[in-house]
Design goal:
Helix content is 48%, strand content 16%. The protein contains 14 helices and 17 strands. It has helices spanning 14-38, 48-58, 68-100, 104-115, 123-132, 208-211, 241-271, 275-285, 289-314, 337-342, 346-362, 405-416, 428-444, 455-473; strands at 2-8, 143-146, 152-155, 161-166, 173-177, 188-193, 196-204, 217-223, 229-231, 236-237, 317-323, 365-369, 377-378, 383-384, 386-388, 391-393, 402-404. The two termini are 54 Å apart.
Length: 485
């Protein structure tokens, strides 16, 4: 398995950084040109070698102002990014195909046309590709891709590693000190951020699975907001996530409001003709270096919390059942600005990445299921409950169990695995119909409680049902779960 390692420059002087920045800026124009000309879905299947040969033939390559190996690697990297962007859109197209065609032979044909680039001949696939695969653009101008045979590595007396990479001209090398004693290998991706150089490279990690084996149980998990995951055993993992998101959101709100006032002063000064004052404010008060560093630290903390939580779940799970976090559900309730800012969509991506990566490295099986209504169905009676915040109330007469919503969602996610009626791509409207239909059939099989039933007999039946629901709810670790008559 491949994992990415990052090394940082150590004491890189301003002159070298300026040379690297100029080279990255020129390569950024090459990357933007690739996206502009070949980022459309109709250019599906164009290879990077075809682009390179064409640009060398028509003289376009002579306008780049960088060495041939540098812009060729940039073209290859940009084409790979376009392909990844296109494949991400095709995932949604495959889901649309699954919903449209009930005949398995038609589905297979559509999948094959989509895979081998014949989708333009099918009107439905063409519409879906135009809808889900937009023409992308690239504004990246701070990266340099260096092939493995284009740089040298050596170690100084103190043990720290240096590398030298090609500059803008022939036989020009830029020596870069790194803050590591481990030499990078393979293709390097150099990223310039805030006066510092990051060296990204991939290494093999074959022993990661053996160092930390997985557990032996089958566990369902549900993604929360105040915590990373809640499992079907009632345990909550990564409970500090909510505090991190709230503190960062409130800090951004305050800082952005102050920056807006300062920016207003600079704009007024520029309109009044005082460009010197406006430039001073822009340089001293409206920079992004510190803000980007703070954001990077925050994202690193969130990733640490998320991966730690997933590791804790895998410690007891040989088979992990999770919701499909790639799907988005639009809430009917209009949320406020603060809530929307805290419910950052990128944390779902981090959680999905952690589930895939950790389960693969530690040998645990990961199964994704349809998450529709998993946090709204009460596990005790299998009906749609009534939710108030993180509490989920059972609305069946005679039950009244109150569940912790994330715990109930994890139990429902676990039971959703292998459901014959609800597949991964079943629309949420159909899922609701299935849930309500099952509840209605279960309700009709219950004894009819008419006026001829003695009051004491009804009371005993109610006590028995309540006792059963209480035993199911006691699996949760939350202390406020209760059963009401």
């Amino acid at each position: 398995m491949k994992v990415t390692r990052i090394a940082y420059s150590r004491g890189l002087n301003a002159g070298k950084y300026a040379q690297l920045d100029e080279q990255a800026r020129r390569l950024g124009r090459v990357r933007a040109m690739v996206w502009a000309r070949y980022g459309s879905p109709v250019r599906d299947g164009v290879k990077d070698r075809t682009i390179r040969d064409q640009w060398m033939q028509d003289g376009t390559a002579e306008t780049f102002g960088v060495l041939a190996n540098a812009w060729k690697e940039t073209v290859r990297d940009a084409v790979a990014d376009i392909a990844a962007h296109r494949e991400a859109g095709k995932v949604k197209v495959r889901k649309a195909v699954h919903r449209r065609y009930k005949d398995e032979s038609k589905r297979k044909k559509a999948y094959a046309d989509l895979k081998y680039g014949r989708w333009q001949d099918d009107s439905f696939l063409a519409r879906q590709m135009r809808r889900h695969v937009r023409h992308g653009v690239s504004r990246t101008a701070n990266q340099i891709v260096v092939r493995s045979d284009q740089y040298n590595v050596w170690r100084m007396a103190d043990g720290n590693v240096w590398i030298d990479i090609p500059g803008l001209g022939r036989r020009q090398k830029i020596a870069i000190p790194l803050n590591t004693t481990v030499a990078p290998t393979g293709t390097l991706r150099l990223i310039l951020r805030g006066g510092r150089l990051e060296v990204h490279y991939a290494i093999d990690a074959p022993d990661l699975r053996e160092t930390r084996p997985c557990g032996a149980a089958k566990v369902g998990v549900d993604k929360g907001y105040t915590e990373v995951l809640a499992d079907s055993d009632g345990d909550h993992h990564g409970t500090e996530l909510g505090v991190l998101l709230r503190e960062e959101s409130d800090s951004l709100k305050t800082k952005n409001a102050r920056r807006a006032k300062i920016r207003s002063v600079a704009e007024k000064a520029r309109k009044a003709g005082d460009h010197a004052k406006a430039d001073r404010i822009q340089a001293s008060n409206l920079g992004t270096i510190k803000r980007n560093r703070r954001r990077s630290r925050f994202e690193s903390r969130v990733r640490t919390v998320t991966f730690t939580a997933v590791h804790a779940v895998i410690d007891k799970a040989a088979h992990l059942v999770a919701e499909d976090l790639t799907r988005s559900f639009v809430s009917r309730k209009k949320l406020g600005k603060n809530t929307n800012r805290r419910l950052a969509a990128w944390t779902k991506g981090v959680t999905a990445e952690a589930l895939n990566s950790v389960s693969e490295r530690r040998g645990s099986t990961l199964t994704l299921v349809n998450a529709a209504y998993t946090s709204q169905v009460v596990p005790c009676c299998r009906i749609l409950g009534k939710r108030h915040g993180d509490r989920l109330h059972c609305t069946r007469s005679g039950c009244g169990v109150v569940w912790q919503a994330d715990h109930a969602g994890a139990i429902n996610v676990l039971e959703r695995d292998g459901d014959p009626d609800i597949s991964l791509h079943t629309p949420h409207t159909r899922v609701k119909q299935i849930i309500q239909g099952r509840a209605d059939r279960h309700r009709t099989r219950l004894p009819v409680q008419d006026s001829s039933t003695p009051c004491g007999e009804r009371t005993i039946r109610s006590e028995q049902q309540c006792s059963t629901n209480r035993k199911q709810a006691d699996r949760s670790s939350s202390g406020w779960l209760r059963c009401r008559r």
